Amino acid sequence: MSSQDIPEENLPAEQDPAHGAVSPADEKNPFADPGMPPHEPRIQDIDERAAKRSERAVAFMFTLSMLATAGFIASYVAIPKEKSIFVFPLGHINALNFALGLTLGVALFAIGAGAVHWARTLMSDHEIADERHPIQAAPEVKAQVLADFKQGAKESALGRRKLIRTTMFGAMALFPLSGVVLLRDLGPLPEDKLRHTLWKKGKLLVNMNTHEPLRPSDVAVGSLTFAMPEGLDEHDHDFQVQIAKAALMIVRIQPGDIKDKRELEWSVDGIVAYSKICTHVGCPISLYEQQTHHVLCPCHQSTFDLSDGARVIFGPAGHALPQLQIGVNDEGYLQALGDFEEPVGPSFWERG
Fold first, then answer.
1. Does the predicted TM-score (pTM) go above 0.70?
2. What's the N-to-C CA distance of the chain in angstroms?
3. What is the percent of the chain with per-residue pLDDT over 90, rounded to a whole number?
């Protein structure tokens, strides 16, 4: 739009000469003040139609934010947390997480974009020069503030009224607990679920590949077999949660090569069962070196010695892999003789 299309009464007045004034350098001010450039009006300042367009654009973005917020709430309520969708190029992802992230991102972006567009096109953009002044208050002001504070403290009688002082501090200390209580709605309490798995006395060790119970003869010296508890099915709704705690590594070592006394007592003819979950960040361990009896976590290279209580010999893991005590039942199958004696996987703060 050219200036010929704008009504004459809306055209800017002559520029104030003082706006771009400069001050030369002198003895008191050795650095010259370059002044401010002449103010240039925006199209919205001189054309109400352009201003209306900007207003509608800002209102549209705020409305879009409201709709995205409504979509966030609807997604949280309506979309099952187990549902997955295919999104190119991300692949298969959780539908709920995708919907929540998309709607929340749009809601926040639209608010920010609307506010920025409002400030850049409709709010006043006149440059204002203000002389700097000392930050420190004058001595008489500081003296007056200090005197007022002392007078207020004296009139409050806080020093003499110990009951009021004590109860006030108590109220102020307890009040933030109301916000802490709201954290309870973040989800169900874990209770002691991290300390227990599906393993218990009499549970058979089932091969994760064949889904058949294991016999001692099925485990050869130097081999690595993965096992899960009897009765756990891959189609169970909580399969991933349970297998993340109960997955086992079954390794057969010559009994004479086992250095740890308890490990030997909890084994069957050199067959030892250890948690497959790394004690660093919970990655599944899958690499076994039969000559050294070492297992390696592929995520961060934590290395454990299965011939010596699965102690850590390298890497960031904080403690040894938990061992599961096993035996053989009357039918000749390997079975658990109880649960792990310590929580599997990484440490957590309330772990006693």
1. no
2. 74
3. 53
